[in-house]
Each structure stands twice: as structure tokens, then as C-alpha cells.
């Protein structure tokens, strides 16, 4: 039976699968790092792609009496197609140095460094074969630790010779986010008009829903500006800070609104039960943690040692929150079923049951699509079409917002509650048939 790959190989495979296509000009500091491989960035190159790397203040400390061979430490590019071949080489020979592989695109080794005390190197490399590559540093010197400052620039050249620092599959994102931000701004205007037109039916939940729409629009505006400045200059010029602020508020509001609508707060009852308060007390702190993980993932990159852990934290917290927000909707459905047996308002309760059952299905569909389908698209789509997963996610989100806001819009004569005597009898029959079991 073949020997399983050593842990660094498993980590390498996980990083290549999980790492997004990063882009910005980055200045990173590596301090006494013993890892045999460090993934810096993953980027989609066109035929005019370039890699600029500057390594400075380089030092290598070894616990062995013999100094490490400089040619055993260096930078290289690796495509996803060549990953399997490299993994097979390392599996056959665990002591094989990846810098000797024929499947990598070598850039430079520490043999090319200037002599101490500067110990630095700067190089620019054209990418002749367009593809999605990962930029790695390999340390094949046993029992050694590396310290250095690294500056990376990965970009493609546009037809006018200007630099595009966004990956080949993300260069359309500024326009995409701008388009959806305009859609949400129009949505905000329409929601304000609807609330003003039906002032007597407006509840506190409708104001929260309006705030959610505004935060979503501002979040997309900041995302568009962030990607635009990265595309043109390689740095976000502070727009990433605003993006994370509005994203934090938007995500907290989204989960809060779904929970409150699920409980029927404001428009069905003016208070929350203890168990419903506990759901909010669980969801909101977890979303604070999820947003913290999102910032760490987005602003650092796979080169930090705990990057995989932060990804796992984000995924776990997101799953817990998605499960938690379903419970209030289920509780409301069961509560309405019990109430319908005693209060003599079968038609009204049937309408409410239909409303909450539909909302339950909509929420499940939204969570399934944005968590599973979008991830599948991001995984299987060619690197040039990574923007398609973003477009699918934003389209699904806009559709979810539109359906949710339509279902719970303020209306003086809502069709769910405008019922006659004949419908009342039909509703009683429907409720007896137990049609709303989940």
C-alpha cells in the first residue's frame, strides 16, 4: 500500500483548493518560518501576464552545523494542472525537492541573492503560457528557518499597456458590483415609496428591512470601488475598510431581519419569546466572529500560518448561523397550527401558514444556492470565468430580497388577510388535512 502524502502535501492541496484569486500589490514579512512550502498568491494570467518579486533582508537560520544550500530555497509558479504531477513526485519520494520538478515554473533561488548584509533580489518575469498559477516559496533545506520581506506584484497588461492587477477572472467585478449597487439603490427608493404610501401598515420590521437594503447598496458600492482601485493601482486606497464596515452591518442586519420575520415580530406580535431572544443572542455574536474571520481571510492571505484555521472558523460559524435562523420560522408555523385549532379564525391562520411556509422554502433555497451552488460554480468554472460565481450569488441575493420584501411588504389590504366566508370554510377543511407538516 502506498505511503500517504506527508502533512505539507495535504496542506498544499487544501490551500490550492481553498485559496481565492488574490491580486493586490502585497508587502509581506516572513519571520523564522520553518514551513517547507508557503503559498503567497493565486492569480489568473493572460498572454500578457507578469510577476514582479522583490525579496529583501533575507536570512536563513539552521540547527545543523552545515549551512543550507542556497539553491534549495526559492520561488516558483505552479498551475492547477501540474499540481497532481508534483504531488505524485513528492509521494514517490518524500525527500524530493519541489524546486527540481519539471512541472513548475521556476523564478529564482537564494543563489541569486545579492551578498550580505543586503541579501536581496528583485526580478520581473513574463508569463508566456496563460493559466491560473499559484506563487510559492519552497524551503528544501532541512531544519532551517527563513526570515525575509517580500513584495509581490502580479498583473496582466491591457491592450493600452496599462497594468490590470485583478486576476483574469475578476477584471469584470467593478462593473458587476456597480450594476447591482444601482439595482439596490432603485430598490431602496421603491421601498421608501411603498412605506410612505402605506404608512398605517408600516411596522418597525419594515424600517429594519429598509436599513438592510441601504447597507447592501453601500456594501456593493464600496466593493466596486475597492475592486476598481485594485484593478488600476494595485491597492484599495482605503475602500476595503469601508467595504468591511458595511459588510459587517449588512450581514448582522440580514440575519436579524430573517430571524425577526420568522418570529412574526412587529407585524404579528410586539414582543419576542425567550427562545427567540436566545437565537438572536447566538446568531449576532457568531456573525461578529464570522466577519472577523472574513477580514483576516481577505486582508492577509494563505501565507500566514493560521489561514486555513480562519477559513474553517468562517465555514463552521456560517453553517451554525444558517441552521439557527431556520428555527424561528419552524416555531411560528407550529404555533400558528396550534392557534388555528382554538381561535376560530381558520382562513386567517391558513393565510399566515401559507406565508410562513413559503418564507421557509425561500430561505432554505437562498441558503442552499449561495452556500453550495455558488461554491460549486467557483470550483468548476474556468479561471477566466470566476466572475460568473459572483454574478450568480448577487442575482440570487437580489431575487431573495425581492421575494422576501414582497411577501412582507406593508399593505393596508393584504391579500393574505382579505378573506370571505366561503374561503373561511375552505380554510377549515385545509387545516384539518394537516397539510403544513415540515
What does this structure look like?
The chain is an alpha+beta fold. The protein is 53% helix and 17% strand. It contains eleven helices and nine strands. Strands 1, 3, 6, 8 and 9 form a five-stranded antiparallel beta sheet that branches. A hairpin with a 5-residue loop joins strand 8 and strand 9. Helix 5 (239-263) packs parallel to helix 8 (326-340). It is elongated. It starts with 6 loop residues before the first helix and ends in a 6-residue tail after the last helix. Mean pLDDT is 83; it is low at 1-7, 414-421 and 434-438.
Explain the layout of strands and helices.
Blueprint: H1 7-18, E1 26-33, E2 37-44, E3 49-62, E4 73-79, H2 80-92, E5 105-109, E6 121-127, E7 132-139, E8 144-157, E9 163-164, H3 173-197, H4 204-233, H5 239-263, H6 274-299, H7 307-324, H8 326-340, H9 346-380, H10 387-407, H11 421-432
Antiparallel strand pairs: 1-8, 2-7, 3-6, 3-8, 4-5, 4-7, 8-9
Helix pairs in contact: 3-4, 3-10, 4-5, 5-6, 5-8, 6-7, 8-9, 9-10, 9-11
Features:
438 residues, alpha+beta, four-stranded antiparallel beta sheet, 11 helices, 9 strands, 53% helix, 17% strand, disordered C terminus
Largest sheet report = 5 strands, antiparallel
Report the radius of gyration as a whole number of Å. Answer: 27 Å
Structural class: alpha+beta
N-to-C SSE series?
HEEEEHEEEEEHHHHHHHHH
Describe, in short, the structure shown:
The protein is an alpha+beta fold and 438 residues long. The chain has helices at residues 7-18, 80-92, 173-197, 204-233, 239-263, 274-299, 307-324, 326-340, 346-380, 387-407, 421-432; strands at residues 26-33, 37-44, 49-62, 73-79, 105-109, 121-127, 132-139, 144-157, 163-164. The strands form 2 sheets. Strands 1, 3, 6, 8 and 9 form a 5-stranded antiparallel sheet that branches. A 4-stranded antiparallel sheet has the order 2-7-4-5.
